[in-house]
Recover the amino acids of this structure.
């Protein structure tokens, strides 16, 4: 890959070659970060060439991705999700210029498709035909879907308590699903052992630096959709830290390539019931402390984040701000997004907007700010919480008198 | 509208002006069909101009749509759903050239978004600020979502037995939901009375000829995505008849405009437990007979179809074929789509593929045929049936011995 120079450890700074199976730092075990030759990329990538590309997927930004190409296997259409100008919601939140990036409009209905699509291509590069992870959430379903499209096998390890609906989705995509009679810790451990034993490709996010390179395409799209005029802020919900790390990486790449002239300040939103990253960021330390997982937003309920370093760097380097939100604020943001803009978000997907509302109300961000809020997953993924949030319909008998009374 | 000549009754042939609130035929009550000036359209629309359009929504085919424009209100990104080349699934079904049109990748996750987006624009043309329908299904959620985006109010009438999850989705979009203590018949009647009484815009499919004009954009896209080289067959699931009517209308428009040189034969797929349209079509009569609604595919469980005339015409005029499928065949097709292609379909969305499988196996269609199968809705809409279909995961203890045994 002419555009990639190596993989640098986020802890000790060691640089190793970027192979498809490059995992954590051989010296200190730190998470790696893929590095690029921005001078080379600058000579290849500009606004004009981009405009002329007909590829309407995340792969349209090939020069900024750690792959030679994506081969000939079938792919789901990942990326190029809509960016909606949200005047009504902006008015309600008191924000002058607001856009919603609806990443629930991906094939398996979450931003994770960007990471899984990348993982599948890297697995093929490594000559693997099976790819594995431990998860019951969006990572698992996106891996199962993207692997199925490409004709790869997926092995997914889930703790026995996993909800049936989520398992059904995995099974529909033909994944081998192993229901592990134990805790999530047990499940992760057995998945790691099995990956070693059978040599499968590893899609566990903390181990694989390429996943974030897939996720960063959300920022490349936001920039292109805004004509490379950057908003002041980008709000994103934060769980294990991989997504905000990817969001930052995308903007950093564009900045280094000269395609944008500043990096938006990131608004890192966590649930009040589970906010180890924001707590550390607010205290200005890298020493985060594990927390319990008390929130309805399951996709960001991560008490022991796997990517705290990249997340904390992203917040600090973007001069970002942190906001924590209650479950009530999250459920209320779901209603706001739906009723003002026709966007149905899962709780974790609406958390960013909940945080934005709070930041605007408390004066943390300026009234004339321009903001993009990212919706990371679709509400159909979690209908139970939608029911909690939705409120009650109007009951009537099939008689006009009842309706007349209601409208009076 | 320079491109529209009028609205013709599908029963008596009377032509009336195409106003936004044009409803059924004033003489006989028949459903109307919007008619175009194809000569004019031919002078305006060609492959080259289309190629250069950057609009990646259903509105890119403006010359073939019954609107002057879509105004300045915000819109969801409807249409331009992916068309996947499905070699693996084709191999499994014994079909040489197969594509999947995944219309579950629309904003509210079904093809109905095309109709609702059109309804919202026509409501605005008519100067209405409220739009109404009776339904609990995809029509209702797509209306609620598309109306919310545009800042219109939606009133939705649902029978009291409607599932809570579906109501939650409607409420999230800020629709006024009226839970009617009565049958679906009662619900429809009170909605019609209320629409009359308060002058709302009517999105009930049998009454409003524009909805089908929205739906037909699925065919315009299929044609463009295939470079205007038509497949031999297009398979589509059929309930009240509006969707297959729209699919046919799209191809007919393209044929009349000279953009394609033949109309694909339609494969009309209904559930064996509810197939009044296919039964009439197979008997070569327009006299369909109401049936019970015995199928898990709720979106096509329509015993009294509202658009039988257009559906039966579509089947006959395309030299189409009819196939009925059992619930088991539908659930099996869901697994096939998911595991071979990474496409998660709701039961009604998979029915077309189930019918295609049956048609291929029984020799109804040729082995070297080229086929597009349309997936009309996403499986996340109906997780319960996915659970029914999915099968059981593998149970293990968190010990390698269990895995070793499984793989032996």
């Amino acid at each position: 890959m002419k555009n990639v120079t190596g993989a640098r450890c986020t802890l000790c700074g060691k640089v190793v070659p970027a192979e498809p199976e490059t995992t954590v730092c051989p010296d200190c075990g730190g998470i790696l970060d893929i590095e690029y030759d921005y001078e080379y990329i600058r000579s290849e990538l500009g606004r004009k060439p981009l405009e002329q590309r007909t590829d309407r997927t995340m792969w349209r930004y090939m020069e900024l991705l750690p792959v030679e190409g994506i081969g000939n296997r079938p792919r789901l259409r990942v990326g190029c999700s809509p960016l909606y100008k949200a005047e009504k919601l902006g008015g309600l939140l008191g924000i002058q210029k607001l856009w919603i990036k609806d990443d629930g409009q991906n094939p398996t209905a979450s931003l994770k498709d960007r990471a899984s699509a990348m993982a599948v291509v890297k697995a093929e590069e490594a000559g693997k035909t099976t790819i594995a992870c431990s998860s019951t959430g969006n990572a698992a379903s996106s891996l199962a879907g993207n692997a199925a499209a490409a004709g790869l096998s997926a092995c997914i390890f889930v703790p026995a308590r996993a909800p049936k609906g989520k398992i059904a989705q995995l099974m529909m995509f033909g994944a081998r699903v192993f229901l592990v009679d134990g805790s999530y810790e047990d499940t992760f451990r057995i998945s790691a052992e099995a990956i070693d034993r059978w040599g499968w490709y590893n899609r566990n996010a903390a181990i694989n630096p390429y996943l974030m390179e897939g996720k960063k395409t959300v920022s490349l799209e936001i920039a292109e959709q805004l004509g490379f005029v950057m908003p002041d802020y980008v709000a994103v919900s934060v769980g294990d830290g991989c997504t905000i790390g990817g969001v930052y990486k995308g903007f950093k790449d564009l900045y280094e390539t000269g395609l944008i002239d500043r990096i938006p300040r990131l608004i890192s939103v966590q649930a009040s019931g589970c906010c180890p990253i924001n707590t550390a960021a607010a205290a200005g330390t890298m020493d985060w402390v594990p927390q319990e997982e008390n929130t309805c937003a399951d996709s960001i309920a991560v008490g022991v984040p796997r990517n705290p370093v990249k997340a904390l760097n992203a917040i600090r380097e973007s001069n970002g701000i942190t906001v924590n939100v209650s479950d009530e604020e999250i459920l209320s943001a779901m209603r706001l997004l739906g009723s003002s803009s026709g966007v149905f978000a899962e709780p974790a997907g609406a958390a960013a907007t909940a945080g934005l509302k709070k930041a605007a109300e408390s004066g943390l961000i300026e009234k004339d700010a321009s903001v993009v809020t990212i919706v990371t997953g679709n509400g159909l993924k979690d209908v139970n919480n939608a029911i909690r949030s939705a409120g009650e319909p109007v009951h009537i008998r099939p008689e006009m008198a009842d309706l007349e009374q209601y409208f009076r």
The radius of gyration of chain A is 21 Å. Chain A has a mean pLDDT of 95.
